[in-house]
Amino acid sequence: MSFTLNPLSEALGAEIVGLDLSRPLDKPTFDAVHQAHLDYLVLVFREQDLTPAQHIAFSERFGPLDIHPADDAVLTEHPEILLVSTRRENGRYIGLPDGGPKWHSDISYREKPSLGSMLYGIEIPEEGGNTGFANMYKAYETLPADLAQAIEGKRGVFLAGRNNAKQTFRRTLNDAQKAKTPPVSHPIIRTHPETGRKSVFANEQHTIAIEGLPEDDSDAILSELFAHCARPEFAYFHDWRPADLTFWDNRCALHIADLTRLDDPAYLRHMHRTTIQGDAPF
Ligand code: SIN
After folding, report:
1. Which of 3.40.190.10, 3.20.20.10, 3.60.130.10, 1.20.120.680 is the CATH number of 4-277?
2. What is the CA angle 80-229-40, rounded to 5?
3. Is the C or the N end of the chain the one with fewer CB within 10 Å?
4. pLDDT digit string (tens) for 181-192?
């Protein structure tokens, strides 16, 4: 099978046109997609028509899937699919309406954070609801010397944003879900297990402290690091079209959702996400 690949920005991201992911890709095509994912960090597959089972089957080619700790925001028949959705039934959100209000890497609060996530746009608003992506290889390669020195060899403490009393969400975790997401620590500079490249691995939504530092010092370094990682030249903001499937690498890229229209009653954004498990960072 052949496809066309169009880079989307200087920072990261490529569009893939001409592939039908509802059917299994042959090995050469799968290998080419895999390589493109490593090269561009974010892939946007256009014009997909996927059932949950087909979405899951494509995702599983990359590894086993995670079940999100908000296990009441998943599809009942397919718990591997997280509902990222502003839809309400009986006055209650059916999924997570506010996935990703800050730059983050999915489930970076697990011992084994995610390899990558696949988000499928089913109902897309005419305006708003973009997803931003940022290249953390570039963030690492351009660290100011004093900041690089401050985080050299350090580990971050990671906690689910929905399990952190300092963060506010429309839907939080219940006590049982919170108990299953205790804090973990990871190196702040990690090496990608496939490319061997180093990247910054810390994010505003889940990294709450630097291990072993006084709180004030830790907060000051993290806020400088988060500002550096959010520099516009590392980022691409994806303006969704219905039937886009985006696939990002959580090991070397951050993402953020535009939630500015969340309170607009006319705003409907309905998506399915799979989250592929990865390795413990080193
Ligand atoms: C997420 O953080 O996985 C959701 C991103 C989005 O809603 O754009």
Report:
1. 3.60.130.10
2. 60
3. C
4. 999 999 999 999
